[in-house]
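Dear support,

Our group has been running a series of protein-ligand predictions, and this particular one with magnesium ion is the one our PI (initials K.S.) wants archived with full inputs and outputs. We had some confusion internally about which version of the output was final, so please treat the block below as the authoritative record. The input we submitted was:
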Amino acid sequence: MSTLTKRVSLTQYLVEQQRHHGLIPSQLRLLIEVVARACKRISISVNKGALGDVLGSAETENVQGEMQKKLDVIANEVLIEANEWGGHLAAMASEEMESIYVVPNRFPQGEYMLLFDPLDGSSNIDVNVSIGTIFSVLRKPEGGAAVSEADFLQPGTAQAAAGYCIYGPQTTLVLTVGAGVALFTLDREQGSWVLTQDKLTIPEDTKEFAVNMSNLRHWAPPVTRYIEECLSGSTGPRGKDFNMRWIASMVADVHRILTRGGVFLYPWDKREPEKAGKLRLMYEANPMGFIVEQAGGAATNGHTRIMELQPTRLHERVSVFMGSKNEVERATAYHQEAA
Ligand code: AHM
Ligand code: MG
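Confirmed final output from the archive:
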């Protein structure tokens, strides 16, 4: 058999999941394929960089009060345009938009709702470091009423699918529909997504952590304790030396953890005590938490499993501890002891 015939495309993978496991209704399959196609378009823009005039600031502010980069705006538009007309969605929500985007009346309404961070790791765009798109899929609640923001406020356990695409040295798409995690690599010549790894698993133990260490003095005591114990190395209570990595793109940091283990932390800090954390629950922590759990890892806010948190607002923030199971459990136990 030639190597070509062995290649499994994203479409084939989805059809097989549908056929053999009954996991992916046709609207969900269309949705995932459309998101993947949009990511391909975003990847083309990212790759052009200065040649495509896509670097730098858009000179506008998003709902989070952050300055938008040109690519934040472009990626948001690409995802909306690609997804609004296919009949698979009722509405969308994005880090870059204050309110939900209801599919216009001129298009058929679908059963699903899509949330996304169109370009995660925006601070890395202009310095040519990996960035990505994160997405989460929810079902529209039963009942004929017009979709509203309240319909989106479902816990992460309700996600029908989640994924992310990394625009890095390779463009890769990582996907879960609740039956493990699959990794697809973009074949640029063919323009297709090829399955390059199935059933990704995160080792339960690790010697590597990812955190923005410059915030150490602002953390709560359980977080400082956890990191200081890692830093004290083989002569400290952990009895082993730890390595640290921080890319400042959650997609890239979590992708490394999916590949070789590790623990990712973005905890609450006392400079802005009213904010639970920096990262957003619904379109960052929930989809990444779903993927990490599907790969055998864990994800908590220091107290509770992230996917069980009941969202109260679309742009709600959350503390994040995710990755290798035993490390997340340890950091979570330190919070419980402190409480
Ligand atoms: P963004 O969605 O506006 O890009 O912000 C989220 C990013 C994460 O990808 C990353 O983990 C974190 O912010 C980096 O924060 P810091 O600048 O503190 O290193
Ligand atoms: Mg983000």
